[in-house]
Each structure stands twice: as C-alpha cells, then as structure tokens.
Amino acid sequence: MLKVSELAALAKISVRTLHYYDELGLLQPTMITDAGYRLYSDENIEKLQQILFYRQLNIPLKQIKRLMDDPDYDHIAALEQHQLMLLKSREQLDILLSNLEQTILVAKGETTMSKEARFAGFSFDNNEYEQEASERYGDDAVDDANKKVQGNNKAFGEQMADRMNELYRELAELRALNPRSEQAQTAIGKWYTMLNEISTYSPAMFRSLGEMYIQDERFTANIDQFGTGLALFMKEAMDEYATRLKSERL
C-alpha cells in the first residue's frame, strides 16, 4: 500500500490532483486509516496509469470516468488504443523533425528543398468532432465513417445528411414524450440503424454518443436547432435503447 504522497511522487503528479480524483470518484483509495491517511493498492496504481494515459491524450476527466465506469470497458483494448494513438503521434513528430532539420539546412544555404517537402508532417485534416470520436471510439470506426460519408461518394454524404435532418425533425416532434416510451424508442431505433449504415456502433458507443450530445455545446446547439431540448431527449432515448440492446444480447 502507498500513501497519497508516495503515489503522487511515483506518478509525478500533485497530492492535490489525487485528492481531486478521489472527489470525482475517478480514483478512490483502497482504504482510509483511522488517522485519515489514504492508502492505495496495486490495483489503484494500475488504474491511475490508465487515467494518465487518457489525460496525455487530452481527454476530459468526466469523460474518462464515464468510459472507465462503463460495464463494457475493456482496459486491454483501451491500452492498445493508447499505444496506437501514441505511435501515430510519434510518427508524425518524426516527420516534422525531419522537415525542420532540412528546413534549417536550407536556411543555412546547405541544401535545397521541394515545395512539397516543406509541408511534410503537417496535418490539419481532422476536424474537432473527428478527433473526439477517434479518442472515444477508435480510429477504425471513424475512418470507416469518413470513407462512406466524406470520401469520394459525395452523393451518399448529401443523401445521408438529408435523411439525418429528416429524422431529427421526426424526433423533435416526439420530444415531449417519455424517452422510454415505445414511440420514442422506435424513432431512436431508426437513428441507431442509420448510424450503423455509416459505421459500427456497439450499445456502449451509442450510449456514449448520446452523452456527447449534451456534454458538448457544439452538438447540443446543432441538434437543438430542430427543437429546444431535443439533444437531451435523444440522449435519454439512446441510453434506454442501448440498455435494451445489451439485455437482448445477453
């Protein structure tokens, strides 16, 4: 067992940070002594490492907690995803460093450089939504969605956008109902089916997406333009739908 000060020193974070993680319910000590000392087990240490991997990828603490509290959370799959994302980051950094090194030589008049080479390693392709989705769901699902919606098949993308807007309007008309009602669940089932035409969404992913609708102001504003409160209605309906899906698969 480690005291809070010992764990903080080991992980190179502050004691205050560990206290905050405890308050959030993100990382609670295995036990607290009669004297009030927090004691952390090996299991706590392993969990803290996973939390810090997420933090290194700039994922908010509240989202980390939701991910790690999810019954479907797979810590091995999460670690593999961390590894993949860090390897991609390292690859891009290596290209940028090579670009910078050559640029310095050009500036010194020691070599030449093509116009294309000057921009090697720069990448601003990923929009904010795509980056966030990649962090939460994995790059494979996002890449698959991009190929279907944003790739060369422009007609598919426009058609899908029209269908989504139509379904938003249908859901907006139902938002006064209980999200768990059969009518609401039938409509949100259409949303689940439509999303799975773009990529593959597990029940956990579908639930997390619904949470994003109310946690991220960008999503809320975009959805609520079809009707105030629609984002919250969809979130609650998606949560219920995901629960029912999971029960059916047990």
UniProtKB/TrEMBL annotation:
It comes from Paenibacillus yanchengensis. Residues 157-184 form a coiled coil. InterPro entries: DNA-bd_dom_put_sf (IPR009061), MerR-type_HTH_dom (IPR000551), MerR_fam (IPR047057), TipA-like_antibiotic-bd (IPR036244), TipAS_dom (IPR012925). Residues 1-70 form the HTH merR-type domain. This is MerR family transcriptional regulator. CDD domains: HTH_TipAL-Mta (cd01106). SMART domains: HTH_MERR (SM00422). The keyword Transcription applies. It comes from the Bacteria. It holds the Pfam family MerR_1. Keywords: Activator, Coiled coil, DNA-binding, Transcription, Transcription regulation.
